[in-house]
Amino acid sequence: MPFAAQLTPGQTVAQHTITEYTLTAEQLHKAEGLHRTNVALTLVETVFSLVVIAVFLALRVAPRLERWARRVSSKRPAQTIVYFPALLFLLALLGLPLEMYGHHISRAYGLSVQGWGSWAGDWMKEQIVSLLLSTALLTGLYWLIRRSPRRWWLHGWLLSLPVILALVFLAPVVIDPIFNRFEPLAKSNPELTRRLQDMAHSTGLDIPESRIFLMHASDKVTTYNAYVTGFGATKRIVVWDTTARDMTTGQVLFVFGHETGHYVLHHIYKGMAFSFLLSFFGFYLAKVLLEWSIARYGRSWQVESAAAWSSLPVLLLVASLLGFLGSPIGNAFSRWQEHQADCYGLALTARSTPNSAQVAAQSFQLLGEKALAYPTPSRLLVLWNYTHPTIASRIRFAIEHPDGR
Ligand SMILES: [Zn+2]
Q1: Do residues 268 and 228 make contact, with C-beta atoms less than 8 angstroms apart?
Q2: Is residue 2's pLDDT more than 70?
Q3: Does 259 qualify as catalytic in the annotation?
């Protein structure tokens, strides 16, 4: 197995010229352990969720829950808010031990500092948000399937566009604040905000103070991050407080330059358009697979048709299968956007920061060290699972293409 070159102990990022992604022997040891655990955990989670659904089908859990919902009330809306949340919450509860193990690992490796009480609170909030949303969307979907057994996939696909738009628009103002605290970056870092705005301004871009936010991440995690979210009136750049606190101004400027790239290159719109187009095939294949499996096994599962609520586990099985098969496509698109944003950040900082490619490499190095990013993941894993290019390749690109071209 190839190893990354190593720093001598005590040597820090600022004290040497970066030529590649390097970890100390101790960091590398940890990164390997974390990498192995995460790969195993992902595989176990994927297989486990498929097995649970298979068991649900074999034990006819969904038809039982549906009959129970009918006994609870004779009214359809009341049955809806009993059946869907009950089935989905049961699935979430069964997946909880693995999620807890994941959080335990994050704490053990020092990536998370979030206590169990706070974590449990977040988990509950997540369940409430997702149950409300899924119940509404599934009620609509099953209504469509009943109304139009042959064309529901097409109507569902068309209606998914306003749903995606609404969710992306509302996420930063309605959903994100449920889990984390946000404030204008200018409140705590006025000087940094001005520098960020000046840099954006040098490309003729005006990013108002009111669209640059600080997220209080440090009470939960130790890692660094920044991101662009929302669109139209809610479009914004968010910097985690860990990033603003630990990185030098030059490094934060590069991170911000990368995010400005997402902002200027309209990556949110393009991402929504891409997932909408991709989901055309998803909806169609879901219909075909759903009908095929019900025709074949429906009798033994006690699922009469796609329109019956009891087909939900089959739909979930089909959706997770398609999601798994589609993830290399979605992730390749994401890695391509991330690379474009890196290029933009390099080009932008090349004008204002001395030795800008080195500063960019330092930012990546810090990002990788903090997250214990594994230096040499397999190509297959990157293809399937990585939303960003590997840290090693991002550093290599910055050094070989200092102005991003
Ligand atoms: Zn990015």
Answers
A1: yes
A2: no
A3: yes
